[in-house]
């Protein structure tokens, strides 16, 4: 029965645009590869059959350790596995997705599977995630940039309203009331837009993929530095390594980081510092977002992740706190099987920690 299945597998492979392969583990040789397998790797069938090591030479240097771990995992587990790896061809990255299963026939162990090139799909997904992440950051930056002048206009209108009330100029008073109302409505509009976008995008289930966390975090910090907020706050990013890979839903997780940074901005004075750090540990990655702001009083700390009304307070410039942000942050971290906690001291600052498994 096994021989018949292998024959059918090879017949399917000969007709498929995806790569099909059978690898004999003990001899470290391919016993079958189809033409598409060779085409995806940009090699000849005879070359691969004669020198299987050729395909490993093309694996991206940053993914070689990961590829070795995947190989060992396949041999240790009888279950089907799915992996994504990068190849490096003349400084050109190529993504491939591998579906592989171990199979024992007549005392021999084989790895049987398929290979699909996903470069275009992967690049498109990365591009979409970048657009979404920058959209969210832009909305937050826009909120901060708009709320301050609108708030100042509202205060100025209130002051003029009090002065004109003594004079009794009804026409001017009516105009000032209109200005105040418009400021209030636009302040609410800006914040409701942010809330709507954040809530809408977190309702989707997470889809974890192998991601370079350092690249993602550096891109977020770079965006804040280039915004107007970069003129009033110091944004610092400190990674423990040039690259840190782990499986996560990058778009969702960057929303978590963005929301934590946004909260730090609210409660950090002008020229204050907001720091993001990523540290690779043995079995996990620790990410922290810290500030030297006003800190969180003891009486507000207990229910911070539970959306309790008593934990809400306005920012230093009167920014409103709706209360669901921290609850959503914790939900996203939980979906990644991670942990989140914080340390805070009034007048010194606050640090949020997120630990994610590798």
TrEMBL record:
PROSITE patterns per UniProt: HIS_KIN
GO biological process: osmosensory signaling via phosphorelay pathway
Record keywords: ATP-binding, Kinase, Nucleotide-binding, Transferase, Two-component regulatory system
EC number: 2.7.13.3
Record carries keyword Glycoprotein: no
GO MF annotations in UniProt: ATP binding; phosphorelay response regulator activity; phosphorelay sensor kinase activity; protein kinase activator activity
Gene3D superfamilies: 1.10.287.130, Histidine kinase-like ATPase, C-terminal domain (3.30.565.10), PAS domain (3.30.450.20)
Keyword Kinase: yes
InterPro entries: BphY/WalK/GraS-like, HATPase_C_sf, HATPase_dom, His_kinase_dom, HisK_dim/P_sf, PAS-like_dom_sf, Sig_transdc_His_kin-like_C
UniProt superkingdom: Bacteria
All copies of domain Histidine kinase, residue ranges: 141-358
Reaction catalyzed: ATP + protein L-histidine = ADP + protein N-phospho-L-histidine
PANTHER family registered for this protein in UniProt: SENSOR HISTIDINE KINASE GLRK (PTHR42878:SF7), TWO-COMPONENT HISTIDINE KINASE (PTHR42878)
Listed name of the protein: histidine kinase
The species this protein was found in: Pedobacter endophyticus
Taxonomic lineage from the root: Bacteria, Pseudomonadati, Bacteroidota, Sphingobacteriia, Sphingobacteriales
